[in-house]
Amino acid sequence: MSNASPRVHVLTSGYVGPRTASTVSLIEAVDGLVVVDPGMVSARSVILDPISALGHVPEDVTDVVISHHHPDHTINIALFPNARVHDHWATYENDVWTSRPAEGFEVVDGVTLWETPGHTPQDITTIVEESDGLTALTHLWWFTAGPEEDPFATDSGALHEGRRRVLETAARIIPGHGELFVPDEGTPR
Question: In this structure, are residues 109 and 77 in contact, taking their beta carbons and an 8 Å threshold?
């Protein structure tokens, strides 16, 4: 990659309803290749084909970040056999479990984790410093319109506080089950 700033690619936009899929993203950085939320999708090719189209193979992925431990965001972690896995309290590599807080942890240069509980007590947001502003990959929103109140939130107050924090800095938001969006005055807070 020629650019020093990381670049985010949405591999597939998720959805909820009779069927459920997570939004899966790839971050290309100078010092790593990061997949965020490789969860449920209609077929593994939905994740793997866009990675291939970008010139990578699964073995190239250095890191996987999971926003929280629900299966719809984690079920395809094993597609990336060489990757370290990051969650709310640790990094896992092969048989090594390294405990650490998520808040402020730098996965690779320009890719940082924030603790943003609400949907679950363990939710994290991945913040990417792209050349044209910050992109937040998060389950604070399911999709562009919210929902205003997360029906499964374990702590609604914390969720809304996390939203406020992200909205103060993010130019773009990639929600847990929808398409990338640019926040505006109508974005649920």
Answer: no
157: containing domain: 7-174
In a domain, 141, yes or no: yes
H-type alpha helices, the chain: 45-53, 156-169
Supply the pTM of this predicted model.
0.96
Structure tokens at 111: 């890719």
CA distance 33 to 99: 22
Number of domains in the chain: 1
Spatial CB neighbours of 84, under 8 Å, sequence gap ≥ 6: 62, 63, 64, 91, 92, 93
* 85 contacts 64 by C-beta, under 8 angstroms: yes
Tokens 């189209």 locate to: 53
For the domain that residue 152 is a member of, what is the CATH number?
A: 3.60.15.10
Q: How many CA atoms lie within 13 A of 163 on its CB side?
A: 29
Q: Which tens digits make up the pLDDT trace of 64-108?
A: 999 999 999 999 999 999 999 999 999 999 999 999 999 999 999
Strand order in the sheet with 106-108: 106-108, 111-115, 124-130, 133-137, 170-174
